[in-house]
Protein backbone atom coordinates (compact mmCIF):
# COMPACT_ATOMS: atom_id res chain seq x y z
CA UNK A 1 0.00 0.00 0.00
CA UNK A 2 0.98 3.63 -0.30
CA UNK A 3 -0.42 6.66 1.53
CA UNK A 4 1.97 9.25 0.15
CA UNK A 5 0.88 12.80 0.85
CA UNK A 6 0.81 15.09 -2.13
CA UNK A 7 3.82 17.38 -2.34
CA UNK A 8 5.77 19.10 -5.10
CA UNK A 9 9.48 18.54 -5.48
CA UNK A 10 11.61 21.67 -5.24
CA UNK A 11 15.18 22.45 -6.34
CA UNK A 12 14.79 20.49 -9.56
CA UNK A 13 14.28 21.10 -13.29
CA UNK A 14 10.76 20.96 -14.72
CA UNK A 15 9.68 20.97 -18.34
CA UNK A 16 8.33 24.45 -19.04
CA UNK A 17 7.43 24.98 -22.68
CA UNK A 18 8.32 23.96 -26.24
CA UNK A 19 10.90 26.50 -27.39
CA UNK A 20 9.05 27.27 -30.61
CA UNK A 21 6.10 28.61 -28.62
CA UNK A 22 8.18 31.52 -27.29
CA UNK A 23 9.17 33.81 -30.17
CA UNK A 24 11.82 36.59 -29.92
CA UNK A 25 10.29 39.67 -28.33
CA UNK A 26 7.37 37.71 -26.90
CA UNK A 27 6.31 36.66 -23.41
CA UNK A 28 4.07 33.88 -22.08
CA UNK A 29 2.32 33.62 -18.71
CA UNK A 30 2.41 30.15 -17.13
CA UNK A 31 1.90 28.55 -13.76
CA UNK A 32 4.23 25.93 -12.27
CA UNK A 33 3.73 24.25 -8.89
CA UNK A 34 1.04 26.82 -8.19
CA UNK A 35 3.41 29.76 -8.81
CA UNK A 36 2.73 32.40 -11.50
CA UNK A 37 5.68 32.64 -13.88
CA UNK A 38 6.40 34.94 -16.81
CA UNK A 39 8.54 33.41 -19.56
CA UNK A 40 10.02 35.80 -22.14
CA UNK A 41 12.55 35.76 -24.97
CA UNK A 42 14.57 38.86 -25.81
CA UNK A 43 15.02 40.09 -29.36
CA UNK A 44 18.48 38.49 -29.28
CA UNK A 45 16.98 35.10 -28.38
CA UNK A 46 17.80 34.92 -24.65
CA UNK A 47 15.08 33.25 -22.58
CA UNK A 48 14.35 34.34 -19.01
CA UNK A 49 11.69 33.70 -16.38
CA UNK A 50 10.38 35.97 -13.63
CA UNK A 51 7.70 35.70 -10.97
CA UNK A 52 4.61 37.05 -12.67
CA UNK A 53 3.74 39.58 -9.97
CA UNK A 54 4.85 43.21 -9.82
CA UNK A 55 6.24 43.94 -6.31
CA UNK A 56 4.56 47.35 -6.31
CA UNK A 57 0.81 46.59 -6.42
CA UNK A 58 0.79 42.87 -7.32
CA UNK A 59 -0.46 43.26 -10.90
CA UNK A 60 0.77 40.40 -13.12
CA UNK A 61 3.73 41.58 -15.19
CA UNK A 62 2.33 39.58 -18.10
CA UNK A 63 -0.50 42.13 -18.30
CA UNK A 64 2.07 44.77 -19.23
CA UNK A 65 4.38 45.34 -22.16
CA UNK A 66 7.62 43.75 -23.29
CA UNK A 67 9.92 45.68 -25.60
CA UNK A 68 12.16 42.70 -26.30
CA UNK A 69 14.51 43.69 -23.50
CA UNK A 70 12.57 44.77 -20.40
CA UNK A 71 9.10 44.15 -18.99
CA UNK A 72 6.94 47.16 -18.10
CA UNK A 73 4.08 46.87 -15.59
CA UNK A 74 0.75 48.08 -16.97
CA UNK A 75 -0.25 49.79 -13.70
CA UNK A 76 2.51 52.36 -13.03
CA UNK A 77 5.15 51.63 -15.66
CA UNK A 78 7.73 50.06 -13.37
CA UNK A 79 10.31 48.28 -15.53
CA UNK A 80 12.27 45.11 -14.85
CA UNK A 81 15.19 43.56 -16.73
CA UNK A 82 15.75 39.88 -17.47
CA UNK A 83 17.39 39.40 -14.06
CA UNK A 84 14.34 40.73 -12.23
CA UNK A 85 16.01 44.02 -11.29
CA UNK A 86 13.90 47.17 -11.25
CA UNK A 87 15.38 49.67 -13.71
CA UNK A 88 12.83 52.48 -13.75
CA UNK A 89 10.01 53.95 -11.62
CA UNK A 90 8.42 56.74 -13.71
CA UNK A 91 6.57 58.33 -10.75
CA UNK A 92 9.85 59.47 -9.15
CA UNK A 93 10.97 63.06 -9.69
CA UNK A 94 14.62 63.97 -10.28
CA UNK A 95 15.58 64.81 -6.68
CA UNK A 96 13.95 61.72 -5.16
CA UNK A 97 16.57 59.07 -4.48
CA UNK A 98 15.53 55.47 -4.09
CA UNK A 99 17.48 52.26 -3.75
CA UNK A 100 16.18 50.29 -6.74
CA UNK A 101 17.87 47.11 -5.48
CA UNK A 102 15.08 46.85 -2.90
CA UNK A 103 12.57 46.12 -5.64
CA UNK A 104 13.37 42.75 -7.11
CA UNK A 105 11.27 40.18 -8.88
CA UNK A 106 12.14 36.54 -8.31
CA UNK A 107 14.12 35.10 -11.20
CA UNK A 108 14.01 31.42 -12.20
CA UNK A 109 16.90 29.71 -14.03
CA UNK A 110 15.81 28.53 -17.49
CA UNK A 111 17.63 26.53 -20.15
CA UNK A 112 16.84 25.62 -23.73
CA UNK A 113 17.80 22.12 -24.80
CA UNK A 114 16.82 20.02 -27.83
CA UNK A 115 14.00 22.40 -28.67
CA UNK A 116 12.58 22.51 -25.14
CA UNK A 117 12.57 25.07 -22.32
CA UNK A 118 13.24 23.87 -18.78
CA UNK A 119 12.72 25.85 -15.58
CA UNK A 120 14.41 25.30 -12.22
CA UNK A 121 11.91 25.56 -9.37
CA UNK A 122 13.84 26.33 -6.18
CA UNK A 123 12.38 26.80 -2.71
CA UNK A 124 9.53 29.29 -2.61
CA UNK A 125 11.31 31.68 -0.25
CA UNK A 126 14.42 32.05 -2.43
CA UNK A 127 14.50 35.28 -4.46
CA UNK A 128 17.74 34.30 -6.17
CA UNK A 129 17.86 30.64 -7.15
CA UNK A 130 21.28 28.99 -6.87
CA UNK A 131 23.01 27.75 -10.00
CA UNK A 132 21.61 24.23 -10.43
CA UNK A 133 24.18 21.44 -10.34
CA UNK A 134 21.94 18.64 -11.61
CA UNK A 135 21.72 17.89 -15.30
CA UNK A 136 18.59 18.12 -17.43
CA UNK A 137 17.56 14.75 -18.95
CA UNK A 138 18.45 14.59 -22.64
CA UNK A 139 17.18 12.47 -25.50
CA UNK A 140 20.05 10.19 -26.59
CA UNK A 141 21.36 9.87 -30.14
CA UNK A 142 19.92 13.18 -31.38
CA UNK A 143 22.47 15.73 -30.17
CA UNK A 144 21.07 19.27 -30.24
CA UNK A 145 18.28 18.46 -32.71
CA UNK A 146 14.77 19.59 -31.89
CA UNK A 147 11.74 17.29 -31.89
CA UNK A 148 9.82 16.28 -35.02
CA UNK A 149 6.40 15.94 -33.42
CA UNK A 150 4.79 17.41 -30.30
CA UNK A 151 1.62 16.69 -28.34
CA UNK A 152 0.39 18.30 -25.11
CA UNK A 153 -2.59 17.33 -23.01
CA UNK A 154 -3.84 18.64 -19.69
CA UNK A 155 -4.45 15.95 -17.08
CA UNK A 156 -6.90 17.13 -14.35
CA UNK A 157 -5.08 15.40 -11.50
CA UNK A 158 -2.21 15.70 -9.07
CA UNK A 159 1.15 15.13 -10.75
CA UNK A 160 1.84 11.77 -9.04
CA UNK A 161 -1.13 10.10 -10.69
CA UNK A 162 -0.11 11.30 -14.14
CA UNK A 163 3.46 10.07 -13.63
CA UNK A 164 2.48 6.67 -12.24
CA UNK A 165 -0.19 6.18 -14.88
CA UNK A 166 2.22 6.84 -17.75
CA UNK A 167 4.90 4.45 -16.41
CA UNK A 168 2.43 1.66 -15.57
CA UNK A 169 3.51 -1.46 -17.56
CA UNK A 170 0.27 -3.45 -17.18
CA UNK A 171 -2.44 -1.03 -18.32
CA UNK A 172 -1.77 -1.07 -22.05
CA UNK A 173 -4.06 -4.01 -23.05
CA UNK A 174 -7.00 -2.36 -21.29
CA UNK A 175 -6.44 1.36 -21.88
CA UNK A 176 -4.75 1.47 -25.31
CA UNK A 177 -7.23 -0.45 -27.41
CA UNK A 178 -6.48 0.52 -31.00
CA UNK A 179 -6.13 -1.45 -34.23
CA UNK A 180 -2.65 -0.01 -34.83
CA UNK A 181 -1.34 -1.00 -31.40
CA UNK A 182 -2.03 -4.37 -29.75
CA UNK A 183 -5.78 -4.86 -30.02
CA UNK A 184 -7.03 -8.24 -28.67
CA UNK A 185 -3.51 -9.62 -28.31
CA UNK A 186 -3.31 -12.31 -25.59
CA UNK A 187 -1.39 -11.37 -22.46
CA UNK A 188 2.24 -12.45 -22.42
CA UNK A 189 4.79 -12.60 -19.62
CA UNK A 190 7.26 -9.72 -19.60
CA UNK A 191 10.66 -10.12 -17.95
CA UNK A 192 12.70 -6.93 -17.71
CA UNK A 193 15.90 -5.94 -15.94
CA UNK A 194 16.08 -2.52 -14.28
CA UNK A 195 19.05 -0.49 -13.10
CA UNK A 196 19.32 2.68 -11.02
CA UNK A 197 20.08 5.82 -13.02
CA UNK A 198 20.55 9.48 -12.02
CA UNK A 199 17.47 10.45 -9.99
CA UNK A 200 15.51 7.51 -11.35
CA UNK A 201 15.75 4.09 -12.96
CA UNK A 202 16.19 2.50 -16.40
CA UNK A 203 14.69 -0.54 -18.06
CA UNK A 204 17.62 -2.15 -19.87
CA UNK A 205 17.68 -2.33 -23.64
CA UNK A 206 15.78 -5.40 -24.78
CA UNK A 207 13.98 -6.88 -27.76
CA UNK A 208 10.24 -6.33 -28.01
CA UNK A 209 8.65 -9.82 -28.03
CA UNK A 210 5.17 -8.89 -29.33
CA UNK A 211 5.75 -6.13 -31.86
CA UNK A 212 2.96 -3.49 -31.99
CA UNK A 213 1.56 -2.87 -35.44
CA UNK A 214 2.78 0.74 -35.38
CA UNK A 215 6.42 -0.42 -35.25
CA UNK A 216 6.09 -2.56 -38.39
CA UNK A 217 6.30 0.46 -40.68
CA UNK A 218 10.07 0.33 -40.24
CA UNK A 219 10.30 -3.00 -42.04
CA UNK A 220 12.99 -5.57 -41.22
CA UNK A 221 14.88 -5.88 -37.97
CA UNK A 222 13.72 -6.85 -34.51
CA UNK A 223 12.71 -3.74 -32.53
CA UNK A 224 14.67 -3.04 -29.37
CA UNK A 225 13.94 -0.45 -26.74
CA UNK A 226 15.34 1.15 -23.59
CA UNK A 227 13.18 3.20 -21.23
CA UNK A 228 14.52 5.59 -18.59
CA UNK A 229 12.67 7.54 -15.91
CA UNK A 230 14.05 10.64 -14.20
CA UNK A 231 12.67 12.91 -11.50
CA UNK A 232 10.52 14.92 -11.35
CA UNK A 233 8.49 13.22 -14.12
CA UNK A 234 10.50 12.58 -17.29
CA UNK A 235 10.26 9.39 -19.34
CA UNK A 236 12.59 8.79 -22.29
CA UNK A 237 12.09 5.79 -24.56
CA UNK A 238 14.67 4.95 -27.23
CA UNK A 239 13.40 2.63 -29.97
CA UNK A 240 15.85 0.98 -32.38
CA UNK A 241 14.63 -0.91 -35.45
CA UNK A 242 17.54 -1.80 -37.71
CA UNK A 243 19.13 1.50 -38.74
CA UNK A 244 16.15 3.54 -37.53
CA UNK A 245 16.17 5.40 -34.21
CA UNK A 246 13.09 7.01 -32.67
CA UNK A 247 13.00 8.63 -29.24
CA UNK A 248 9.98 9.58 -27.19
CA UNK A 249 10.38 12.22 -24.50
CA UNK A 250 7.40 12.55 -22.16
CA UNK A 251 7.59 15.29 -19.53
CA UNK A 252 5.04 15.69 -16.74
CA UNK A 253 4.77 19.16 -15.18
CA UNK A 254 2.55 20.08 -12.21
CA UNK A 255 0.64 23.29 -12.80
CA UNK A 256 -1.38 23.17 -9.57
CA UNK A 257 -2.68 20.61 -7.08
CA UNK A 258 -5.35 19.53 -9.56
CA UNK A 259 -3.80 20.26 -12.96
CA UNK A 260 -0.86 18.65 -14.72
CA UNK A 261 0.56 19.19 -18.20
CA UNK A 262 1.91 16.23 -20.15
CA UNK A 263 4.13 17.01 -23.14
CA UNK A 264 5.13 14.19 -25.48
CA UNK A 265 7.76 14.72 -28.16
CA UNK A 266 9.01 12.36 -30.84
CA UNK A 267 12.49 12.59 -32.37
CA UNK A 268 13.58 10.77 -35.52
CA UNK A 269 16.15 10.93 -38.34
CA UNK A 270 14.13 8.92 -40.88
CA UNK A 271 13.11 11.41 -43.65
CA UNK A 272 10.03 9.52 -44.87
CA UNK A 273 8.49 9.68 -41.38
CA UNK A 274 7.99 13.40 -41.96
CA UNK A 275 5.56 12.52 -44.74
CA UNK A 276 3.52 10.50 -42.25
CA UNK A 277 3.22 13.29 -39.66
CA UNK A 278 -0.38 14.17 -40.66
CA UNK A 279 -1.31 10.57 -39.81
CA UNK A 280 0.96 10.15 -36.77
CA UNK A 281 -0.26 13.35 -35.06
CA UNK A 282 -3.88 12.26 -34.44
CA UNK A 283 -2.83 8.71 -33.54
CA UNK A 284 -0.33 10.00 -30.97
CA UNK A 285 -2.89 12.39 -29.50
CA UNK A 286 -5.50 9.67 -29.28
CA UNK A 287 -3.01 7.34 -27.58
CA UNK A 288 -2.11 9.95 -24.95
CA UNK A 289 -5.74 10.93 -24.46
CA UNK A 290 -6.56 7.32 -23.57
CA UNK A 291 -4.22 7.72 -20.58
CA UNK A 292 -5.87 11.03 -19.78
CA UNK A 293 -9.37 9.59 -19.86
CA UNK A 294 -8.57 6.77 -17.44
CA UNK A 295 -6.92 9.26 -15.05
CA UNK A 296 -10.13 11.34 -15.17
CA UNK A 297 -12.07 8.23 -14.15
CA UNK A 298 -9.54 7.62 -11.37
CA UNK A 299 -10.37 11.01 -9.83
CA UNK A 300 -13.88 9.75 -9.05
CA UNK A 301 -12.47 7.20 -6.62
CA UNK A 302 -9.60 9.32 -5.32
CA UNK A 303 -12.01 11.93 -3.93
CA UNK A 304 -12.73 9.45 -1.12
CA UNK A 305 -9.01 9.30 -0.14
CA UNK A 306 -8.57 5.51 -0.40
CA UNK A 307 -5.29 3.75 0.27
CA UNK A 308 -3.76 2.53 -2.99
CA UNK A 309 -2.90 -1.17 -2.98
CA UNK A 310 0.21 -1.69 -5.11
CA UNK A 311 1.42 -5.17 -5.98
CA UNK A 312 4.69 -6.73 -7.01
CA UNK A 313 6.08 -6.72 -9.72
CA UNK A 314 3.70 -4.81 -11.97
CA UNK A 315 3.53 -1.84 -9.57
CA UNK A 316 7.16 -1.86 -8.48
CA UNK A 317 8.00 1.07 -10.75
CA UNK A 318 5.25 3.09 -9.05
CA UNK A 319 6.75 2.18 -5.68
CA UNK A 320 10.17 3.24 -6.92
CA UNK A 321 8.79 6.58 -8.06
CA UNK A 322 7.43 7.37 -4.60
CA UNK A 323 10.65 6.17 -2.93
CA UNK A 324 12.92 8.17 -5.25
CA UNK A 325 10.76 11.27 -4.87
CA UNK A 326 10.74 11.00 -1.06
CA UNK A 327 14.51 10.43 -0.92
CA UNK A 328 15.17 13.45 -3.13
CA UNK A 329 13.00 15.66 -0.91
CA UNK A 330 14.70 14.42 2.25
CA UNK A 331 18.20 14.78 0.83
CA UNK A 332 17.42 18.35 -0.25
CA UNK A 333 15.99 19.26 3.16
CA UNK A 334 18.92 17.68 5.02
CA UNK A 335 21.53 19.17 2.69
CA UNK A 336 23.09 15.81 1.83
CA UNK A 337 23.74 13.89 -1.40
CA UNK A 338 20.87 11.97 -2.96
CA UNK A 339 21.10 8.19 -2.44
CA UNK A 340 19.12 6.25 -5.02
CA UNK A 341 16.95 3.63 -3.26
CA UNK A 342 16.57 1.63 -6.51
CA UNK A 343 18.84 -1.39 -6.94
CA UNK A 344 19.36 -3.67 -9.93
CA UNK A 345 16.35 -5.93 -10.17
CA UNK A 346 14.45 -8.22 -12.54
CA UNK A 347 10.70 -7.66 -12.68
CA UNK A 348 8.04 -9.94 -14.16
CA UNK A 349 4.45 -9.16 -15.09
CA UNK A 350 1.82 -9.98 -17.73
CA UNK A 351 0.62 -7.43 -20.24
UniProtKB/TrEMBL annotation:
Top-level lineage group: Bacteria
Keyword Disulfide bond: no
Any one GO molecular-function label of the UniProt entry: 2 iron, 2 sulfur cluster binding
A Pfam family matched in the record: Rieske
Keyword line: 2Fe-2S, Iron, Iron-sulfur, Metal-binding, Oxidoreductase
Domain Rieske span(s) in chain numbering: 14-119
Record-given protein name: Rieske (2Fe-2S) iron-sulfur domain protein
Amino acid sequence: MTDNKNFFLRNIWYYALPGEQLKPGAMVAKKFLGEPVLLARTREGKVFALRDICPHRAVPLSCGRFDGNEVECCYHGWRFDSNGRCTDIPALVEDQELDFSRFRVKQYPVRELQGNLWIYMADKDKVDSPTPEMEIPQVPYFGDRTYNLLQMLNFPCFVDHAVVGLMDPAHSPYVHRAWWWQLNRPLVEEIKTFDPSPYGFTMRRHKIPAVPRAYRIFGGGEPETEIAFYLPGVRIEHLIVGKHHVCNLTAVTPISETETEVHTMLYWHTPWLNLLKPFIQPLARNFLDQDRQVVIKQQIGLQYNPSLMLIKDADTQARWYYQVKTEFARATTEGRPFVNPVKEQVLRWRS
